[in-house]
Amino acid sequence: MKLNKLHIIAPYPKGEAPSQRFRFEQYLDFLEENGFEIHYHSFHTLKSWKRLYKKGLFIQKFLDLNYNFIRRWVLLFRLIGAKHIFMHREMAHLGPPVFEWILVKVMRRKYVYDFDDAIWIPNYSAANARFQKLKCYWKVPYLIKWASKVSAGNEFLANYAGRFNSQAAVIPTTIDTQNQHTQLVNQNSFPVVIGWTGTHSTMHYLDFIVPVLRKLEREFDFKFKVISNKKPNYDLKSLVYMDWREETEINDLAEIHIGVMPLVLDAWSEGKCGFKALQYMALGMAAIVSPVGVNTKIIQHGTNGLVAETTEEWENALRLLLENGFMRKELGKNAVKSIKEQWSSDVWKEHYLKLLS
User: Fold this and answer.
1) For the chain: N or C, fewer Cβ within 10 A?
2) Are 267 and 293 in contact (CB under 8 A)?
3) pLDDT (tens digit, 9 = 90+) per residue, 278-297?
4) pTM of the model
């Protein structure tokens, strides 16, 4: 069988970013089984990605950036004559869409465009504020417009993409229930563990529920487990921090009984694809989420999880699940069922074949 070369263009090295692992990387084996030869082109090398968020090393980071831009120029030559190109987010972290413009307007190549956040909206930390203009958020509509097809993580993103490209469709972020999320939480173990996972850039969403946790600490014996790439500075006696590691990710998550996903209602949060909730549910956790964006489609309140908006609702939801082990088990059981029926990679894998045809 003659293989079709599929060039995947992504910001990060393979296996290093949740947005890539659960958007398309978990489908790569399936695509290879169906006649595609995968060629993976990340902007960052593994070394430059590991150095990016370390303190200092300014000269090395500057050299890394220049080297990665040179690699992108070389990639353009490799894409001459390419028939299957899949692009996640952008070709380069910084700057205007020069590479994409050359690819489409000069080289006359077509690409499928994939995104899973409201990346046209400036979103940055105070530490990176002085560099935010270099991100060129204004380029996103052009990247969408120039694509032959667009894969968006939820309806909010697809509606935005539809303003610039009529070939925009929803392919949600999904969970691999066959090879990865195969464990289940033991809801009979003690003490009860409330948990959250995510990068330090989104940890500020937890600020909303920290006072609630502090109040509940006076009544209940529980642990609050945070799995991230940076330790939070919360005054909580229940706090347990764990560095995120890919090789132990599922085992670490499977120790959590109650998974939390607080968000604020804004356009950036509307664009999120509910990945935390999906991970919690796939492992049989009782999830509590804010009613923002796709969360209200993933969670049916009282059936496969709980929805909480106000401080009082968060306190009531946490209190209920801390007290009621039977409810935690039932919500977790129904959550697993929902994932397998609606949000698993098995359900959506054929959509990727159609997308790339």
Assistant:
1) N
2) no
3) 999 999 999 999 999 899 99
4) 0.87
